């Protein structure tokens, strides 16, 4: 009988990239913010993909080891 056994996920958590809007100085204009926000969207989408991949790897079923002959 096969019984699932919980196993800790050891998938590394991807490093969060720096975000361009976080580097804006106080008093930045709306145009400055818009220029920084465009690449930030792409960076966030890439990071989200890395996180989803890591989560998927943790949720994937573990193949049991076959008994040695």
Description:
This protein is rod-shaped. The two termini are 20 Å apart. Helices cover 43% and strands 0% of the residues. By secondary structure, it is mainly α. It has a domain at 21-55. The chain is built from one helix and no strands.
Oligomer: single chain
Tell me the major beta sheet: none
Q: What is the SS-derived class?
A: mainly alpha
Helix share, percent: 40-55%
Counting DSSP E segments of at least 2 residues, the number of strands comes to: 0
Low-confidence stretches: none
What is the overall pLDDT average?
A: 89
Helix count, per DSSP?
Answer: 1
Query: How big is the Rg?
Result: 21 Å
Order of helices and strands: H
**CA-to-CA gap between the ends?**
20 Å
Shape: rod-shaped
What share of residues are in beta strands? under 5%
Task: Please tag this protein with its features.
mainly alpha, single chain, 69 residues, 43% helix
Give the topology, please.
Blueprint: H1 30-59
Question: Would you kindly provide a brief summary of this structure?
Answer:
The protein has one helix and no strands.
